[in-house]
Structures are given as structure tokens and as C-alpha cells.
Design a protein that fits this description.
The structure holds two protein chains of two kinds. By secondary structure, chain A is of the alpha+beta class. Chain A is built from seven helices and three strands. In chain A, strands 1-2-3 form a three-stranded antiparallel beta sheet. In chain A, helix 1 crosses helix 3, helix 3 (70-83) packs across helix 6 (110-130) and helix 5 (96-103) crosses helix 6. Chain B is an all-alpha fold. The longest helix of chain B is centred in the last third of the chain and has 26 residues, at 119-144. Chain B folds into two domains: 11-84, Helix Hairpins, CATH 1.10.287.110; 99-172. The chains are: A alpha+beta, B mainly alpha. Chain A binds chain B through residues 14, 17-18, 23, 36-38, 40-45, 47, 64-68, 73, and chain B through 89-90, 93, 95, 100-101, 103-105, 107-108, 111, 159, 162-167, 169-170, 176-178, 180.
Chain lengths: 143, 180
């Protein structure tokens, strides 16, 4: 299967790999949102973290760890790049189809981009929960 | 309960074998060879029109896929659950509580130790994963043989097992991103 240059670049040189602290630290840090997701179809594990500037509400940094295939690594690497400088709402607006398009993912690897989108949503939801901000699901449940 | 999946995709039906988790591999091979002998393209006369040849090849491909599925314990369990009308992995993604966190930490430790120790760590984690695999298989065997197999529990067990198999698949390949 032939992969495009962007996916290979992100796989060979993944951006923003790492963590904002130990697993215990990031669970309690209020400025960090953590999303841990898995793909039951393939068994890949992905953790994505956002660090939010408490003053202006912008995502000022993002990091990830991914134990999976090259497409999953590239998708999460790209997601962390896109998240930086965005508001939480702009982060939630990132769609897996944009990742598919940017990386030219083949159809069998679309679930890797879904995993990255799931990780973004989980990280933002975790941040909101930690900071007492209602998530969209909670808002609609309240109506 | 929903009807069983299309019998053309059900490897037990394709090979005419009783649908159980404990299958003797030699029974799978015997059923495969008998059916291939009956359907192989070489047995179709050369002067027959194309569609017959294509059809024979399609049958052999289906038999071959069914053989591979039934010889692999994980795929056999997946096929068995599908027959019973259980959810597939994309419809029910549930996992035991805390499982993903444990798997993340295991994968991180595995990568760090392989980076430091090489093959010794590879073998140690290979044994760890093989033990996990045995645990999954034992629980699935019990559940599949129950008078009313607990489909949701089986699905969750299979979901967790996939991560263990993924770990084994990646033991010998390039590391992920945990040790960078």
C-alpha cells in the first residue's frame, strides 16, 4: 500500500510526543485535559492531552502517546498540531474527515482518524469536567 | 435474538463444522480439503465458460478464508459471537473498567524495557501477553459453553483480547511513540 508524504513525515517525525506529567499528575492538573481512547477493531491505544491557558481559554499546547500503526500515530500527531492555539469549541470542530484528507489516509485506515477525533473530544471533555464547564451532552440533557 | 449472520460469511457454515469454540485444527483442515477438492478450479473443465471458473475460484477463496478464521482462536470466537447475534466491535466498544489505562502503562513499560534490554524484555512481555491470551481463551470457552452464553460479556472480553493480540503483533516491530 502506498502512503503519501505527509503521513510518512508524521510517522517518521511525530510531533508533540509525550505527556505534561506522570499519569497521576495529569489526572489532577486542572489546566490539562486527558483523552484516553482505544480502537477495538485493531487494538490501538492513544492518549491525547491538551494544556489550556486559564487566562484566555486557548489550547496552548498538546501532547500525545500512541501505541498503534503508522496511520494512528500520524493522525494523533497531526491532531496535536492543529489543536494548538485553538479554543475548546474550535478544537471540537476538528473532524476526522479533515485528518483523512490532510494525510490522504486509505479507506482501511479511516478508523485511525476516528480514533484521533475521539481522543480530542475525550481530552476536551476531561478538561471541561475538571473545570466545571458543562459539556454539550450535559447541556442538552438539561434542556 | 437477531438471525445468524449470512451463512456465506460464517466460517462454520462454509466448512460444515459444528459451531463451537473448542475445535480440533485437524477437523478444520479435513473439512477444508474435502470441500476444496470438490470445488477447485482445476476440476472445472477448461472448455466451460468463464463464469463457472470464476465461481469455482470464489468458492475456494471463501473456503480458504473460513479455514484461516477457524484456525485462529480469536477470529473463531468472533465468528461464533456473530452467529449468536452478538454485537461487533464497532457497535459495542466496551472494555473492563481501567483496562485502557492499564494497557497504556503496559505498552509504555514494554517499550522502555525493550529499548533498554532488547530481546530479554521482548521475551518477558511476550510471555506476559501469552498468559493474558490464555486467560481470555479460558473465560471465553466457559461462556461459549454456558446454556445461555452472555453475549455482552463475550464482546467485552473479545475487545480486551484484541489489545493483547495487538501488543503481540507489535512486539517485534518498530516501537510506537512512548519511548521517544
Amino acid at each position: 500500500m502506498a502512503y503519501g508524504p505527509k503521513i510518512i513525515d508524521h510517522y517518521e517525525n511525530p510531533r508533540n510526543v509525550g505527556s505534561f506529567g506522570t499519569q497521576a499528575d495529569i489526572k489532577t492538573r486542572r489546566d490539562v485535559g486527558v483523552g484516553l481512547v482505544g480502537a477495538p477493531e485493531c487494538g490501538d491505544v492513544m492518549q491525547l492531552q491538551i494544556k489550556v491557558n486559564q487566562e484566555n481559554g486557548l489550547i496552548e499546547d498538546a501532547k500525545f502517546k500512541c501505541f498503534g500503526c503508522g496511520s494512528a500515530i500520524a493522525s494523533s500527531s497531526l491532531a496535536t498540531e492543529w489543536l494548538k492555539g485553538k479554543t475548546l469549541d474550535e478544537g471540537l470542530a476538528i473532524k476526522n474527515t479533515q485528518i483523512v484528507e490532510e494525510l490522504a489516509l486509505p479507506p482501511v485506515k479511516i478508523h485511525c482518524s476516528v480514533l484521533a477525533e475521539d481522543a480530542i473530544r475525550a481530552a476536551i471533555a476531561d478538561y471541561k469536567t475538571k473545570n466545571g464547564i458543562a459539556t454539550q451532552a450535559e447541556q442538552s440533557a438539561a434542556h | 435474538m437477531p438471525p445468524p449472520s449470512d451463512s456465506r460469511n460464517d466460517p462454520f457454515s462454509v466448512l460444515g463444522l459444528a459451531a463451537r469454540f473448542d475445535l480440533d485444527p485437524s477437523d478444520v483442515e479435513r473439512a477444508f480439503l474435502q470441500r476444496v477438492a470438490a470445488a477447485h478450479p482445476d476440476h472445472v473443465a477448461d472448455d466451460l465458460p468463464g463464469p463457472d471458473q470464476d465461481e469455482a475460484e470464489a468458492v475456494v477463496a471463501r473456503l480458504s478464508n473460513a479455514r484461516e478464521a477457524l484456525l485462529d482462536a480469536e477470529r473463531r470466537a468472533v465468528a461464533l459471537l456473530a452467529r449468536m447475534g452478538g454485537a461487533d466491535a464497532s457497535a459495542d466498544r466496551s472494555l473492563p473498567v481501567g483496562f485502557l489505562q492499564e494497557m497504556l502503562e503496559v505498552r509504555e513499560a514494554m517499550e522502555a524495557e525493550i529499548a533498554a534490554e532488547g530481546d530479554a524484555a521482548r521475551q518477558r512481555w511476550g510471555r506476559w501477553a501469552a498468559e493474558r491470551r490464555t486467560g481470555h481463551m479460558n473465560r471465553l470457552r466457559t461462556w461459549f459453553e454456558a446454556p445461555t452464553p452472555p453475549l455482552a460479556e463475550i464482546r467485552r472480553e473479545l475487545n480486551a483480547w484484541r489489545y493483547v493480540e495487538r501488543m503481540l503483533e507489535q512486539l517485534d516491530s518498530r516501537p510506537g511513540t512512548g519511548s521517544v
